[in-house]
Amino acid sequence: xxxxxxxxxxxxxxxAHSPAGxxxxxxxGHHPPSRRRVEECVHCGFCLPACPTYGLWGEEMDxxxxxxxxxKEALExxxxxxxVFVRHMDACLGCMACMSACPSGVRYDELIEATxxxxxxxxxxxxxxxxxxxxxxxVFPHPGRVRVAAVAAWAYQRSGLAGALHAxxxxxxxxxxxxxxxxxxxxxxxxxxxxxxxxxxxPLPRQVGPHGAPRRRVxxxxxxxxxxxxxxxxxATVRVLVAEGCEVVVPRxxxxxxxxMVHAGREASALRSARALVDAFEGWELDDVVVNAxxxxxxxxxxxxxxxxxxxxxxxxxxLAGKARDVTEVLAGLEPRARRHxxxxxxxxxxxxxxxxxxxxxxxxxxxxxSVPGLEVVELGDDQCCGSAGIYNLVQPEAxxxxxxxxxxxxxxxxxxxxxxxxxxxxxxxxxxxxxxVPVFHPVxxxxxxxxxxxxxxxxxxx
Amino acid sequence: xxxGGGAVQVVRPADLAQxxxxxxxxxAAGQLVSIRAGGTKQDWGPPLAPAPDLVVxxxxxxALVAHNAGDLTxxxxxxxxxxxxxxxxxxxGQWLALDPPSQPRGATVGGLLATGEAGPRRHRYGSLRDLVxxxxxxxxxxxxxxxxxxxxKNVAGYDLAKLLCGSQGTLALVTEVSxxxxxxxxxxxxxxxxxxxxxxxxxxxxxxxxxVVASALxxxxxxxxxxxxxxxxxxxxxxxxxRSLAAEGSAPSAxxxxxxxARAWEELARxxxxxxxxxxxxxxxxxxxxxxxxEASDRAAGEVGVAADLVSRAGLGLHTARLRAEDLGxxxxxxxxxxxxxxxxxxxxxxxxxxxGLEEVADLLGPxxxxxxxxxxxxxxxxxGHRLGRGxxxxxxx
Amino acid sequence: MxxxxxxKAELARVLPPDAxxxxxxxxxxxxxxxxxxxxxxxGLVVLPTSTEGVASAVRACSARGVPFVARGSGTGLSGGAxxxxxxxxxxxxxMRRILEVDPVNQxxxxxxxxxxxxxxxxxxxxxxxYAPDPSSQVVCSVGGNVAENSGGAHCLxxxxxxxxxLGLEVVLPDGSVVExxxxxxxxPGYDLRGVFVGSExxxxxxxxxxxxxxxxxxxxxxxxxxxxxxxxxxxxVSGIIASGIVPxxxxxxxxxxxxxxxxxxxxxxxxxxxxxxxxxxxxxxEECLGRFGEVEAICRGAGATRVxxxxxxxxxxLIWKGRKAAFAAMGRLSPGYFVQDGVIPxxxxxxxxxxxxxxxxxxxxxxxxxxHAGDGNLHPLVLYDPDRPGEPERAxxxxxxxxxxxxxxxxxxxxxxxxxxxKACSMPKMFxxxxxxxxxxxxxxxxxxGICNPGKVFPTPRLCGEVIGPYRPHPLELAGVxxxx
Lengths: 463, 398, 485
Known about the structure:
heterotrimer; A: alpha/beta; Rossmann fold; five-stranded mixed sheet; four-stranded parallel sheet; 25 helices; B: alpha+beta; Uridine Diphospho-n-acetylenolpyruvylglucosamine Reductase, domain 3; CATH 3.30.70.1710; 18 strands; globular
């Protein structure tokens, strides 16, 4: 492995690290994947059936244990962080289903995050791909820009432009050498949800008192995708928590929590975001830090490790991480107080990977749904990733599409009216493949409908 | 030694060393060798041809070498008669779960292994192939070898015992067999359900799908026979279940127990075993094809004017047709007509017991399977001179 | 061009591009199966999706004498799918279609890459299942099960793969395709299916498997009984067998194994028990539940300190999850460990366990025991620290001593993991030169050139050194009629 000079400017601000080639093989000295963690994998293969990409392609190099073996080979200096290596690491959804399946307790999350951070620093992608990734990261982790994009999406949908472009299948008309872009744009286009302008435009309250005697004081992480595309979920979260006796504060300013960047290995910007969020939540004396996006929640809970190297933040970060809860965890922990009205509907619950595998939160959302009279909740019998996985469906469109279709087929086979899932990424992905016939809700939207006495889910997405 | 003309030499080894001696010396003399124990199935399949120079009689290898009751295993000499073995094991409340029709006539463990013969309880326990856990064999060149062992669970090395099962004594002389045993059940009852094959077929399918564990599920003599064994309560409740399934559309069923039950099964075994001069042909099919196989048997029998009694291991899709002594031409006609029909169903027909000379007018084995070449190479490897049981797989190989 | 290069060129022509792997990093991910201690990077990996694809790969190898190795999910624990550096690894993980389900006749036809559990799941709606259930059933493929004659926890009552496979489509080492066995029982001719099952990939490659399915039992009853030590638990097993009950499964875990399982799964085993016995009965309701009471009483009579009966299907599933995760979970107790697989006559359990404990303390190592107590299949796990000089070697030696102990007790060097490359050198402990020679003759009938998974099962001087090991006395020597020298 040679030095950095040939690689040109690094897209991320460089992080101080020891030069490559000193006992870390192809990796540099700044948090390479831990050799000890790599050795914990005994190669038993129990992760294979859990891994969506192994399911798609049936090959070792796109399985968790295969990727770990690649990391090991790279650590031992037998292989370089070349295009082949990067392709297989990029192909990982980061769904962490393998961790739930692993009997040895291998920390695949730490390994893949460390590897991705190294790739972002040490590997130079092709120009088109680089530009595309930069463009994505220029929008997604920034709530303000997502909001602009959401308004643009609203306008796009209302203007008739969407129909016109769809009629002409605009992504198909891009020149051939833009193949990857074409797929990605098709994915992006398909993902745009129907946007409620009212919800996007109305800022969340800074602080709301509880109904009845106060039970907990919680702070809400408003998210970026959530705020941009699913503002109604944030509103529902606030209403439901308040109804259940929580005082809710929404600290400002709030940026991105850094999850998308962590998952993509963009370490420097991830740390910047994480520090800002730690600062934003400073001094509020909260019982819980409530998250309603699974991907954000898993990263928040990992803030302690993420900022461990930063003496100015390490302590506060792990304090925040210790308080982070998914909204369904908080609700399941509170004896229902507000009156539930029946909601007559048959819905499927889809486990968001970052909730079930990364946080181990499976029963709580089901418990919340079970508290709604009249609601029938169907299990899909397969907790495989839907293919959204953060921005995965935008950077690996073919695989994302195949997984999305598979999940949609399962939902259709279950014969339900709607799907409930606790992550905006999954929500977007499922909408795309289910079409308008089967709407997708967050669990709090369902509970909100019940508390507000809406007899069906048709009005659940009100503001 | 002059082949064909002279008297056949018979040796009766009393132990492995003598068995080795006999085989090794046959190599030097270039003798054709055949193996005989109880002699109950010498008239099965293609005959030995030309006649062997040496017959190895294994009835001297009849020791119960070991009975490890706590491990549910036994080691026996290949010449041990099955009925004698069962008597010895019964003392410990155990048995070799095998009830072949030839048992009363003195069938031995080795002979049953070589021919693969099994009885009604194969439905629950499988055949000897499924119960053998190790063998000691002497190859025609005198090589003594073992495969498997004395424990039920063992995957070390090739499972040569399986290869020897049903090999008609053409690959090696088996001298000793290790077996897995089963506990004897305390209670037994048989439900007899009068039914034609057409009526019986949906019942068979229904019984297979029901949570009933039958020991035997045979169709013969105009009825379906369902044997249930186990604890008193278990037998009672399952018999009820069987009768209620049967009640849905056939003549009233009867429950046989004790002596009456034993006599009924003996009678069915007598049909299935046949008598000298009979032809026994076995067809294979899927269980759901019972009616079609039986109908094909009736049609074939009608065409050539013979009577064919059918005993079907209905749950397994194994059907034995017995043709009584008639002219060979009629038997041959039945075999080819039945085989044509059964092959259309995806099955096979093989002739077991038959009168002398049938092989001249009928194809006893049917068309060779796709793996016949490898089978021939296995034979070449184990018995390069093709001296052991020559003729038994004719015309596939010598 | 070397022979392997020629094979590469030919296969690049006849197989789709994504079915041929040549990148060194990608090849490295196939360097080992579930026995990661042995690693060899294959010369070439192909991932065919059809019988024809497998046959073309085998023909290309056969024409040039290039060795090839078949691999399914790569979970084997004896290195049976260890690649050949100058050979082709034929990976069947993409052949995973369920071709046919015949619920009426309780049969199913699948491609070799279908996982064991997927088969049972696919037919569960018909109240059927595929009986062999190796611990790795969520991932191991049926092709691998055929090669290894896999068993599992329930094989005492229901038998092994060989009892459930009716027919095989096989690509022979010369590239020809034949059927062994069939959809109906007793096809005429030699039972080559019987010898193929368990031949560890040395006789050909199964490309299609026809299995029989069993009706799901009406009732299943499972209990976990705690005992002060494994020997007492063993007495309970003896009592159960002596009463004429054939349990669907009897599994034993010693204290160390319990610790590991609990750490991994929280299945509810008692951390302070010296041994835990999992006993499961199944069958028709009356039969099963009637006798289950007897089992409970036998356990208590033998000295069980606690008997927990699974109250629900979920609880039962959790008990099994704990048991089935045992091997891999050992990583939580020790950074390194060898999984051993040996069989003893069940009645020899007490003395053999005592001997293992003695050997372990002599070696200064910990041994955890997980075993199928009904059929005497032991899985001692020898724990060691790879960073302590000399400890891995001591552990390996102890594992070998244990398996030799099994043979001395009248058992076998392997009950279900197979011989593979791992135990090839132990084969002479169990089989004489002639025994092995006869097996080799059968092999030669299938694979005269010796290119099909070479270096497995049979001891070779290259693998084991010139002196292959102490031969077991020949049966004729025992009979006093022959001498070796």
